[in-house]
Amino acid sequence: MSKKHTDVTASKQINADLLQFDKEHVWHPYTSMSSPLPSYLVESANGVHINLASGESLIDGMSSWWSVLHGYNHPKLNAALVEQAGKMSHVMFGGLTHPSAIILCKKLIQLTPAGLDKVFLCDSGSVSVEVAMKMALQYWHSKAHLENNALTKTKLLTVKNGYHGDTFAAMSVCDPVTGMHQIFEQVLMQNYFAPAPSINFGEQWHDDDTKALRQLFNQHHHELAAFIIEPIVQGTGGMRFYHPQYLKTCRQLCDQYNVLLIVDEIATGFGRTGKLFACEWADISPDIICLGKTLTGGYMTLAATLCTSDIANTISNGEAGCFMHGPTFMGNALACAVANVSIDLLFENNWQLQVQTIEKSLKELLQPLKTNNRVKDTRVLGSIGAIECLQAVNVAVIQKRFVELGVWIRPFGTLIYIIPPLIITTAQLTTLVNAITTVLAEDKCFI
Ligand SMILES: *Cc1c(COP(=O)(O)O)cnc(C)c1O
């Protein structure tokens, strides 16, 4: 046996052992530990390609859960990390600060909708939602304290079909059914839910769509600290794009009833929908905004919650004298450094043109699928393309087929969607859509 052959055999065995250990001991997101779906071992990723240890190179249609913007293993993003690591990777943010965090906060204030002037850096999207909710609650607590009033505003209002993260406060504003609220009923904060927006982006607007929402505001505003919503795109709730007038009405109702507006831009921020922030479709500014996912271009976990000066000052003048939150890794220097370069790259690469090009290609490529007998609907907004099927997918089978076809697409329920890195070419998008067209013809991929 040649040396090369023995090496290959040895590395195959190592990989098999790794996967076996993974299967037996490592939790994966929303995955059973007793009968897990298979996981694929990744060796590296480059540009829009994810390279498996088994040799296949896959075109990435997922941006690693919406986070990768400029591709994997990007020389400038890599260099930002190396440069920052050469100074320090992290220092505590209590009593210390550093240029990477300060410059990032300055950028975020400049880029986000007007009025969001104070930045709280945190570890992940879910935490940024926790922080946003806590800010809203502490704001009203401080206000009651300062004005010597009883505190009544302790609940949140949201819409059904939403997703805001997996931690407890975030979970309490996720869709009650798909968020499995019954499991945690006894410990979950009880909030109010309006029906999901039903008029789609691009359709004719009618005020009826906000009727139930207006009633809920009218009925409960004394109890409401904040209203929280994903702007324009309900992502995890099925990639549904709703009418900007709905979001505009949310702003109006929050003003009318003295309720804070929290907008969760974790999935939509930094260009995904064709606007830098999806709020811009409705031309509104929220009182609090949550950013995450693409913030570091998919390199590191980092999120941010921005609020108005009024909220920050009211909280700071309240009983506690400060906002009651401070994660260990707040303002992590590596994450901030890579976020700064990722944001610069957006503009260097002309993100608007990148997203428009993807949108145009996706619209053309998905058009023929509209009449596919397994497809209920296809829709495109910015760099997001969704194919809603009539049947649920068999995740294990369809995933294996996608890998065989050279693409990484991970559907859920009845939804096959792509949300590629912004550097993807039309040829690569075509490969993604061709793979989808192929699996749509295969009965075994559906339940
Ligand atoms: C992904 C997501 C979150 C949660 O972010 P994590 O980083 O996974 O905690 C919250 N809100 C929205 C809209 C998201 O898409």
Describe the structure.
It is a single chain. The protein has 447 residues and is α/β, with parallel strands linked by helices. It has 2 domains: 40-70 and 350-445, Aspartate Aminotransferase, domain 1 (Alpha-Beta Complex); 78-348, Aspartate Aminotransferase, domain 2. Helix content is 39%, strand content 15%. The chain is built from 14 helices and 16 strands. The protein has helices at 3-25, 63-66, 75-87, 99-111, 125-147, 168-171, 181-184, 211-220, 244-257, 309-316, 333-348, 351-366, 395-404, 426-440; strands spanning 42-46, 49-52, 57-60, 118-122, 155-159, 192-194, 224-229, 233-234, 240-241, 260-264, 288-291, 303-307, 375-381, 384-389, 407-408, 415-418. The strands form 4 sheets. It has a 7-stranded mixed β-sheet with strand order 4-12-11-10-7-5-6, sandwiched between helices. A hairpin with a 2-residue loop joins strand 1 (42-46) and strand 2. Helix 3 runs antiparallel to helix 11 (333-348) and helix 5 (125-147) crosses helix 10 (309-316). The two termini are 45 Å apart. The model has no long low-confidence stretch (mean pLDDT 97). It binds pyridoxal-5'-phosphate. Pyridoxal-5'-phosphate is lined by residues 124-126, 129, 163-165, 230, 235-236, 264, 266-267, 292-293.
